[in-house]
Amino acid sequence: MSLPELFPFHGNWPAYENEIYAVFVETVVKADLKFRGLTIRVQYAPPTNGKGFRFWHLIAEGEREEDRTPDMRRCERIGWIAWLITNAETHSKLSWWENERFNNTHVVIWHEEESFAVVLAKRKGYYVLKTCYLVRSKRAKDFERERSEFWKARKG
After folding, report:
1. For the chain, what is the largest distance between any 2 Cα atoms, rounded to a whole number of angstroms?
2. pLDDT tens for each residue of the chain, 156 residues long
3. Are residues 144 and 135 in contact, defined by beta-carbon separation less than 8 angstroms?
4. CB 94 within 8 A of CB 34
């Protein structure tokens, strides 16, 4: 079972934005995704240009929400989000673990070979899709350490 195809940019941003949003809605928002038996919710408000908040956060980068700009590598991987979540516990190329960020428990699902990660925020009885991004080498070292510490602690 391999990753879904990429959705490369074809030069027309408005059409491309609509195309990848449709993929996001179909594969994530309407898909009834679950991780470890719990539902994954997606934040819609506040919408921008008629599209949900989380969509913009997933496809763009930048420190401040109002200044984020589309990242074409994130955009073309929009179809990977649901695949990583669905296959996190069973696919040999994926790993997952929990970490703490700002007093919140997050789950990182990482395709190490593709340097791509999806992050879920753990809530009481469900998860919230937080973000996804390409993992750069410095961050990959942090991921390796976090993953190792998490699984070492779980084994007791």
Report:
1. 53
2. 799 999 999 999 999 999 999 999 999 999 999 999 999 999 988 888 889 889 998 999 888 767 789 999 999 999 999 999 999 999 999 999 999 988 999 999 999 999 999 999 999 999 999 999 999 999 999 999 999 999 999 886
3. no
4. no
Extents of the domains making up the chain: 13-155
* Residue 69 identity (one-letter amino acid): T
Q: Do the Cβ atoms of 122 and 106 come closer than 8 Å?
A: yes
Q: Is there a contact between 106 and 121 (Cβ–Cβ < 8 Å)?
A: yes
Record the tokens describing residue 148, joined without a space: 């190792």
Could you check whether the bond before residue 70 is cis, i.e. omega within 30 degrees of 0? no
148 Cβ contact partners less than 8 Å away, ≥ 6 residues apart: none
Written as one string, the DSSP assignment of 90-142 is T-TTEEEEEEEETTEEEEEEEEGGGTEEEEEEEETTEEEEEEEEEPPHHHHHH
